[in-house]
Amino acid sequence: MAILLTGGMILGLGLADTIYDAGYVVVDGDRIAEVGPAAAAPSGRAFDEVVDFSGRLLMPGLVNAHTHTPMTLFRGLAEGVSLLTMDGWYNTIRLLELAMTADMVPASVEVACAEMIRTGTTTFADQYFFMDQVIPTVERSGLRAALAYGIVELNDPEARDRELAALDGFLETINSGETDRLRGWVGPHAFFVDNSPETMLAERAIAEKYDTGLHIHLSTTGEEDAFCAEHYGTTAVRKMDELGMLERPVIAAHALTIPQGDWGILGECNFTAAIAASACMRAGAEAAPVVGMRAAGINIAMGTDNVCNNNDYDLFLEMRTLAKLASFREGRPGALPARDVLDIATRGGAKALGLEDEIGVVAAGKKADLIVLDQQEIGWAPAGANAPFTALVYSVNGLHVTDTMADGRWLMRERRLTTLDYRAARARQAEDVKRLLALAGRG
Questions:
Q1: pTM score, whole prediction
Q2: Does residue 338 share a domain with residue 290?
Q3: What is the Cα–Cα distance from 402 to 409, expressed in whole angstroms?
């Protein structure tokens, strides 16, 4: 299918950072075939669809590098608790997880995917269990995703053997699928907190077998470093390096308390700190040293975390929070420029998932993962003075998104979802929550 989009502003991002005040894009199948000024748009050529996006802005879709989509089921059920501590997580979310059943997962995943599509996310990295229930809904959504099978061992050898076998089967299934939109990752919940070194080594071996990465939580409160200092006489990062964990791609959610002395090690590895600024603030945790880690060569991406911690999927709001929190932490304005924040939300996430050659940029040859925002809505004025980078980070939000495309397919057109039924999913989820609370003894 060939689509011509023409007339509006194009924000290419990427290293070239091309901007057209009025431009055009040709989408052919799942890729961008042409990009240029509107005056050079092809005429006399037949297209399956022609879209005039005058008065709007077209840019790469955003990448949510850390979330747990089934956990929309728990939204509002962990208020006033820090889920970044072992105690807070176990005594709230983990107890609910032990009560939930597999059939509660699909509706909540559909709600999560719909909210991401509606607010401009086209790719996400998930980490959870019940992945057999997650995959069909994500496939139907049309989103691009790296799905990590979550492992929580808690020093139970039977759980270890069961989960490692399930992980192997999951990766065998998902990575032999027909689409390249969905890829499987290994998802240890958190090294040194609830997984043993024996499990970690087995997870690394499975990641090597399937040539994939590790999606973890790291340095949320310093628990890992305290554990490693007591048992190994070193930091968590240095112990991970010793075990060979850093030889695989690693997405580390939060990364709030990594010692500065370890930044150089991580800057030389295929390591990404997935910053979830809203979740960090709501938990009362310290801010991630994003500016310092970027200067040390560490790739930075952006995530929402689960929506018990956040509680929404709008990455535009997350960009705003991250930018302000960086200035607050560093004690100076503009510590993380708006243009850099946009890079974190697009190309940084693409690099984290090994997709930097495919997404995160509006350029010929790239995958057609695009979003369109209405510049006639509030937040953009005055025209010419309010530069698009600043407006996107500080003035607008995901509800300005009118259209979302992934792999050359419309997932939302003129603010109407095309692949998912959000209202029906919400209704099913509401019934699931009632059953969950009854099973957890909270009904």
A1: 0.97
A2: yes
A3: 14
Distance CA 120, CA 372 (A): 8
Mean pLDDT of residues grouped by 10 in the chain (443 residues)?
Answer: 96 93 97 97 93 97 98 92 84 90 98 98 96 96 97 84 93 84 94 84 96 95 90 95 96 96 98 96 92 98 93 97 98 97 98 98 98 96 87 97 98 98 98 96 80
In terms of Cα–Cα distance, which of 423, 217, 243 is closest to 309?
217
402 sits in which H/E element: strand 401-406
Instruction: Say how many domains are in the chain.
Output: 2
* Residue 357 burial (CB count, 10 A): 12
Instruction: Read off the tokens for 171.
Output: 């990766």
Is there a single domain that holds both residue 145 and residue 229? yes
In 3D space, the residue among 323, 329, 353 whose CA is nearest the CA of residue 257 turns out to be 329
Distance CA 308, CA 319 (A): 19
Q: Taking a C-beta distance cutoff of 8 angstroms, is the pair 187, 150 a contact?
A: yes
Q: Which residue has the tokens 């510590």?
A: 335
**What DSSP state is assigned to residue 394?**
I
| Contact between residue 257 and residue 225 where contact means Cβ atoms under 8 Å apart | yes
Is 435 within the bounds of a domain? no
CA distance 340 to 373: 20
